[in-house]
């Protein structure tokens, strides 16, 4: 699963100097192409609502336990810095997560330096642009092997 949090539906429009000019649809196409080449399919989702993201993580947990999914590449957007609930969902559902951020959050405002997701993530990709999604997917595949 590739899961995207709030405002990522605005990729390509919102602060292109920070996030680039690719749209979320472009990122989805890139991820699908990569997954297919590796012999996988993806469930690509975006929501601006915390509860919807939590539900997706819970669903992923069930699929992972059933051997139907490797894990979640997750760009939680601003919820990175605010959501204990997402942290608890990842831990509770026992979901392997690779946290992804398009920009280098550590080179930005101080409030972006703290992540509630990082302590429960298997790995973190920061500041690699949208290529970070592919690195996250590679990370999940590597950890499986």
From TrEMBL:
One record GO biological process: aromatic amino acid family biosynthetic process
HAMAP family: AroQ (MF_00169)
Family matches, as InterPro entries: DHquinase_II, DHquinase_II_CS, DHquinase_II_sf
Source organism per UniProt: Marinomonas mediterranea (strain ATCC 700492 / JCM 21426 / NBRC 103028 / MMB-1)
Subunit structure: Homododecamer.
Enzyme Commission code: 4.2.1.10
Active-site residues from the entry: 19, 101
PANTHER family for the chain: CATABOLIC 3-DEHYDROQUINASE
Gene3D superfamilies xrefs: Dehydroquinase, class II
Catalyzed reactions: 3-dehydroquinate = 3-dehydroshikimate + H2O
Source domain of life: Bacteria
Record-stated family: Belongs to the type-II 3-dehydroquinase family.
Pathway(s) annotated for this protein in UniProt: Metabolic intermediate biosynthesis; chorismate biosynthesis; chorismate from D-erythrose 4-phosphate and phosphoenolpyruvate: step 3/7
Residues binding substrate: 75, 81, 88, 102-103, 112
Site (Transition state stabilizer): 14
Keywords: Amino-acid biosynthesis, Aromatic amino acid biosynthesis, Lyase
Enzyme type, top EC level: lyase
UniProt GO MF annotations: 3-dehydroquinate dehydratase activity
Name of the protein this chain belongs to: 3-dehydroquinate dehydratase
CDD domains: DHQase_II
């Amino acid at each position: 699963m590739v899961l995207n949090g709030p405002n990522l539906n605005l990729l390509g429009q919102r602060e292109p100097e920070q996030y680039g000019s690719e749209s979320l649809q472009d990122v989805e196409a890139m991820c699908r192409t990569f997954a297919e080449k590796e012999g996988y399919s993806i469930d690509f989702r975006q929501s601006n609502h915390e509860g919807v993201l939590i539900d997706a993580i819970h669903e992923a947990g069930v699929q992972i336990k059933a051997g139907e999914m490797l894990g979640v590449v997750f760009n939680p957007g601003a919820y990175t810095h605010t959501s204990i609930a997402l942290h608890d969902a990842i831990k509770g559902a026992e979901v392997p997560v690779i946290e992804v951020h398009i920009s280098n959050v550590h080179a930005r405002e101080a409030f972006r330096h703290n992540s509630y997701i990082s302590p429960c993530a298997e790995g973190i990709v920061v500041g690699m642009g949208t290529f970070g999604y592919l690195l996250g997917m590679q990370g999940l595949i590597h950890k499986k092997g």
